[in-house]
Amino acid sequence: MALRKNLFSRLGNYFIEIVIIIIGISLSFALSDWEKKKSDQVDYQNYLKRLQQDIRIDSVQMANDKRLYLNKIKAVDLIFKYHEGFSQDSILLLGEAQNALSNYVQFLPNNNTFQVLSSTGEFKIFRNDSLVSELFHLYRFDYAFIEMMGKEADGARTQRLEPYLIQNIYYEDELTFPIVRTDIAKVIRDRTFRNICLDYKQSSYSAFNSYRIALERLARIDRIIEEELEEY
Question: For position 81, what pLDDT does the model report?
Fold first, then answer.
């Protein structure tokens, strides 16, 4: 009888020890899981702030690029309105239009944070699927569209315009009357030149619209990020 009691007593002690070990392991896993979630939460906030900074810098650059393309569009209109008489004002305005058309626009996105998230798989800590979808559309599609439209507008068309504009107007300095060594009126009437200008104007509109689309998405992303940060 005493032997049986002693056996049950030892089994009871073993059972208690096992329960204590299980509780300890469970608490350890729970603590580790809590620390992981806390770490992910901090990382998530940091990524959100970095992405927000990137897109806000991009927004400023894109607004400036849009202005440059708008100037190109206005430049074509100004060239077509050029009148004969070679007044100083009209020639200077034509020179300004020439400079607007020859300005090369290149958008350089701040995509380092997005690339890090994509390459490391850290997007898994993002809890807002809509935000992730918008980010991928922005960096993978909208920015690629901007690059494509920019090459279309500032590539071959600029080279085709060069013989008509850059080599036809010369300035000794900013104070004297421009020296014109070509028949500008004849150039303006040239059908090939006008078709190039119209084509350039259309491609500039397309580039301008690609920026507009991206800026609309940037505004949505910024709003979503702001809402996510306010939840903490």
Answer: 79
Tens of pLDDT along 105-132?
889 999 999 999 999 988 888 989 999 9
Q: For residues 97 and 177, what is the distance between their CA atoms, to the nearest angstrom? A: 17
- Give me the residue label for tokens 């899981």: 33
The predicted-structure confidence for 205-224, as pLDDT tens digits, reads as follows: 999 999 999 999 999 999 99
Q: What is the Cβ-side half-sphere exposure of residue 94, based on CA atoms within 13 angstroms? A: 28
pLDDT beneath 50, residues of the chain: 34, 166
Task: Write out the DSSP string of 202-216.
Answer: HHHHHHHHHHHHHHH
Q: Are 213 and 145 in contact (CB under 8 A)?
A: yes
Question: What was the pLDDT predicted at 91?
Answer: 66
How large is the angle between the packed helices 156-165 and 191-230, nearest 10 degrees?
A: 130
Tokens of 83: 């009148």
Rounded distance between C-alpha atoms, residue 139 and residue 182, angstroms: 46
The answer to whether residues 210 and 82 touch, using CB atoms and an 8 Å cutoff, is: no
Instruction: Report the distance separating Cα 8 and Cα 22, nearest Å.
Output: 21
Element containing residue 169 per DSSP (H, E): strand 169-170
In the chain, the amino acid numbered 222 is D
Q: Which helix H or strand E contains 170, and what residues bound it?
A: strand 169-170
